[in-house]
Amino acid sequence: MQFGVFDQNDRGPYPLTEQYEKRLALIEFYDSAGFRTYHMSEHHSTPLNLTPSPSVFLSAVTQCTRRIRLGALVYVLPMHHPLRLTEEICMLDHLSGGRIEIGIGRGASPHELDYFGVDHDLAQAMYVEAYNVIMQALTKDEVNFSGKHYQFKNVPIDLKPAQLPHPPLWYAVPVPEGAAWPAQNRINIVCGGPIPRIREISDRYRAEWAAAGHAPEQLPLIGINRFVVCADTDREAMELGRRAWPVFHRSFMKLWNMHGTQPRYARIPDDFDSVVKNGGGIVGSPGTISEQVSRMANEAGANYFISQFSFGDLRQEEVLYSAGIFAREVLPLARERVAQAV
């Protein structure tokens, strides 16, 4: 089991300049505490994400961290020119000393795509073409591609990433049938939603991995993403979550409510108690948090647990305290398993 952090960078209790400063300091803590990877989202025209350009924000993060790996989860490929995005990825990989990971996706919100002039009905086809262009640009000296949405002929590629042939890839999988392609192509996955569905996804991924003839010991990361609040007591942790959740939920639902629609896969309750009851959040004191994380990961069949510590109006000191408890109580599990393997 390994452990990472996911961050929406949604609107919090601070002015934006201060939020950026505090978030960079928080990521420095994640780095020093020993989390594997800092993952961040990409959203536009919404308070759900106040860092809508992952590459810009991650360029700052590369300069204030030393060990933690970094990446967008995910880059919304239809929103980017694939050659330009490839250049940004290569730059980030070198600026970070080879710590970048690449999440790819078509985008969860049709409204965000539409705002930027991208027909959401074409997003899947654009995503597939962009992915193929990016993989060419990362691994070849010249790009030649002829598709419906992108055409390139004899484009020279001088930039290459620090990690060869390319940085690790990530893909968000909402349903079991979506596990086949990433398993066949050695791509790490992350899952949200109910534990039984994640178990179906992780079982399908392992089956597809074996069917492709890949070695079991080389299995990529199968991640489960959960909101996490730690405090001195279970009651205090629940109170923090209950206070912060309505603020986060308003940001999450703003565009959907404006358009009278609902997310297709990422529906979330409007109260924190239901989030915890449904398994979408883990809340606890130092004495209970480790057991909860281990149990949930085992039930899901995951080998990577991603915590979302910061959300809603949680203040910097509250998030640092929560993540500090997690680091002390849970991260040693990963180190113990590494030591036993050696």
Keywords:
12 helices; single chain; 342 residues; 18% strand; 47% helix; alpha/beta; two-stranded antiparallel sheet; eight-stranded parallel β-barrel
Describe this structure in words.
- The chain has 342 residues and is an alpha/beta fold.
- The protein has helices at 16-33, 54-64, 82-95, 110-115, 123-139, 180-184, 195-211, 234-259, 272-277, 286-300, 316-329, 331-341; strands at residues 2-7, 37-40, 69-76, 100-105, 142-146, 151-156, 169-172, 188-191, 222-230, 281-284, 304-308.
- Helix 2 runs parallel beside helix 3, helix 3 (82-95) crosses helix 5 (123-139) and helix 10 (286-300) crosses helix 11.
- The longest helix is centred in the last third of the chain and has 26 residues, at 234-259.
- The chain has twelve helices and eleven strands.
**What's the end-to-end separation, in Å?**
15 Å
Radius of gyration: 20 Å
What is the element string, with H for helices and E for strands? EHEHEHEHHEEEHEHEHHEHEHH
Strand tally: 11
Beta-strand level of the residues, as a percent range?
15-25%
